[in-house]
Amino acid sequence: MKTLLPFRPVVLCLSGHDPSGGAGMQADIEALIAQGCHAAPTITALTVQNTVDVSDFRVLDREWVMAQANAVLNDMPVSAVKLGMLGNLAMVDTVVELMQQHPELPLVCDPVLRAGGGGSLGKDEVGFALREKLLPLALIATPNLPEARILAELPEGTADECAAKLLLYCRNLLITGGHGEEREIHNRLYCRDGGEHTFICQRLPGNYHGSGCTLASALAGRLALGEELVSAVKSALDYTWRTLRDAEQPGHGQYVPRRLPLDYCS
């Protein structure tokens, strides 16, 4: 008789597909495997992109997305939800409806509005709808500073200024740095209860494709494992930094984080 092992925590991922494998759903799956979790992928959009930039995308019909997600939720004990690319207003409303049906699940919201190469992955009103409708349902949002500025409608805002506005909508906010010329990167966690935590890491050379997806997925995994929020944020940041330190350049553009060890399948 086969011995049944304890199952890994399941994280439902609502993300776009990146054919280069650098970002999107593949990043989610790899990062969650590395945390010891099982990724349940629900595709929200298809993209035409590579390590250089995105040239086009197509958002799936809401019925297909709801059907994918409900197929998982009706079968598996989901422990957390990770949200990535949405692409249009209808998909924002789709995820809002889904999360309202499952308010007990911690939601990690990665507000994907731009590809690593700078190309748009949704019109500006998607950011507004995400802020107004989805951030209030999330346990934590993980924008980088340019994304936080879009969400807060503060084009030149500092992390503190963006957080002051966005905490009116979400309970916890992790604004990641690394978009200036500073030698040390300051990643800041802001909590609505007044708590603030700064995590400092060494700046690495190069540009990276999929770092935001990697971080948000790792964080969702740590939360699914039962780790407390501040500790989970630190664990996810430390893991993401290591994936960037060991990144590779399979294409002509940005580096891709190495989310799994080389000997993973050996």
How would you sum up this structure, described in words?
With 266 residues, the protein is of the alpha/beta class. The chain has a single domain (10-246), classed as UDP-N-acetylmuramoyl-L-alanine:D-glutamate ligase (3-Layer(aba) Sandwich), CATH 3.40.1190. Helix content is 36%, strand content 21%. It has helices spanning 24-35, 62-73, 89-101, 124-134, 145-152, 159-166, 211-224, 229-245, and strands at 10-17, 38-49, 54-59, 78-83, 107-109, 140-141, 172-175, 184-191, 196-202. Strands 3-2-1-4-5-6 form a six-stranded mixed beta sheet, with helices on both faces. The mean pLDDT is 92. Residues 18-254 form the Pyridoxamine kinase/Phosphomethylpyrimidine kinase domain.
What's the level 1 CATH class? Alpha Beta
Residue-averaged pLDDT: 92
The CATH topology is given as UDP-N-acetylmuramoyl-L-alanine:D-glutamate ligase
CATH architecture: 3-Layer(aba) Sandwich
Strand content: 15-25%
Radius of gyration, CA atoms, in whole angstroms: 17 Å
**Low-confidence parts:** none
Class from helix and strand fractions: alpha/beta
EC number: 2.7.1.49
InterPro entries: HMP/HMP-P_kinase_dom, PM/HMP-P_kinase-1, Ribokinase-like
Domain Pyridoxamine kinase/Phosphomethylpyrimidine kinase: 18-254
GO biological process, one term: thiamine diphosphate biosynthetic process
